[in-house]
Design goal:
The protein has about 350 residues and is mainly α. It has helices at about 1-30, 35-45, 55-70, 75-85, 100-135, 140-155, 160-170, 195-235, 235-245, 250-260, 265, 270-280, 280-285, 290-300, 305-335. It is globular and about 90 Å long. The model has no long low-confidence stretch (mean pLDDT about 80).
Length: about 350
């Protein structure tokens, strides 16, 4: 296993170059950019320093700006220069805020983690037990009704779910007792005056509805995957042998079947992890959370490429680490799995 992990870590290096290289090339060939943003502000603002600019002035200013932003060099050279800075976590300055891009990103990370990680773990825990219970009650009224409810919930967009949750629990229009949760944001206005326990409670109140909204993304898929996987394992020969030995159904499922049925859920662990940690543009926008997803949208809107590349690096690393975590989870769930590549 150790040798396999070393090999995987080494293969992450070219994967990182490929993923970030594609991001860098695409954003360099997209229309717009920091130079065009500055030129647009000057042109629509009536010139520079109150002076009307002619075509030659604009061309000269454009050349100066391209040199300032390093855009006067070929894309491969710019990518190499960018990589040398990324090693020390220098993504350049945000063209929107004029602050270091890494500082802007770090400020947003805790917000996305605040509802992303709880949503991620709750999704897996609930889906495993719900899928297991559905498999045990296969064909029953509970199985059919819960499947209908899951697919209905899955068909509702996250935007609609988020808005409905806001209307029901954050306003006094639906519930007679009034709003239960805050209307938006990550903290209350009196955050600095709260004690540690009060801050924890306040933060939980702000994050509860975003977590609930984020659960629906992979909830139906994982639940049905768990159910079908467990049904497949329960029809295996070794399960029939265990039952023939007189073991209780509970012991058969928890000791013999569950370990094998849970393996397919480990495949998408990395993808789900990156999705939750990186945040959701829709959920963060509706609930007014200044997280990574909202930052990505703002950076796209303002053509803030330094921030975009910083987010791309974080997402790339999370995706690769997520796949590595998936492999480790495979071994934890079933130690018989061997990644060494050696045959019998």
């Amino acid at each position: 296993m150790f040798n396999y992990l070393v090999r995987r870590l080494l293969t992450m290096i070219p994967m990182f170059f490929l993923m970030t290289g594609v991001y860098f090339a695409v954003q360099n060939y997209l229309p717009g950019g920091p130079v065009q943003e500055v030129l647009s502000r000057i042109q629509f603002g009536g010139g520079e320093g109150g002076r009307t600019m002619n075509v030659e002035d604009i061309a000269k200013l454009k050349a100066e700006l391209e040199k300032q932003y390093g855009l006067d060099k070929p894309v491969p050279v710019r990518y190499w220069n960018w990589l040398k800075k990324v090693v020390v976590l220098d993504f350049g300055d945000s063209t929107a805020t004029r602050e270091p891009a890494i500082k802007t990103i770090i400020e947003r990370v805790p917000i996305s983690l605040g509802f992303g990680i709880p949503g991620f773990f709750l999704t897996y825990v609930v889906c495993i037990f719900l899928g297991m219970f559905k498999a045990m009650k296969d064909g029953s009224h509970f199985d059919v009704s819960s499947s209908i409810a899951l697919f209905i919930a899955y068909s509702i967009p996250a935007l609609v779910v988020s808005v409905v949750l806001l209307l029901v629990f954050c306003t006094d229009r639906i519930l007679p007792g009034g709003a239960i949760f805050p209307l938006g944001g990550a903290y209350s206005d009196n955050w600095d005056t709260l004690t540690a326990w009060q801050k924890l409670f306040d933060y939980s109140k702000h994050m509860f509805l975003p977590v609930m909204a984020s659960l629906l993304g992979g909830f139906t898929f994982l639940t049905m995957l768990m159910k079908n996987s467990l049904l497949d394992v329960l029809s295996s020969e070794f399960i029939r042998t265990a039952r023939a030995k007189g073991l209780s159904e509970r012991r058969v499922i928890f000791k013999h079947a569950l370990r094998n049925a849970i393996l397919p859920l480990m495949v998408g662990l990395g993808g789900f992890l990156s999705a939750f940690v990186a945040g959701s543009i829709v959920i963060e926008s509706v609930f007014g959370l200044p997280g990574m997803g909202r930052l990505l949208l703002e950076a796209l809107t303002s053509r803030d490429y330094n921030v975009l590349m910083g987010v791309a690096v974080i997402q790339s690393v999370i995706v690769m680490l997520g796949q590595l975590i998936s492999d480790i989870a495979y071994v934890i769930v079933d130690p018989r799995i061997d990644f060494s590549g050696k045959s019998g």
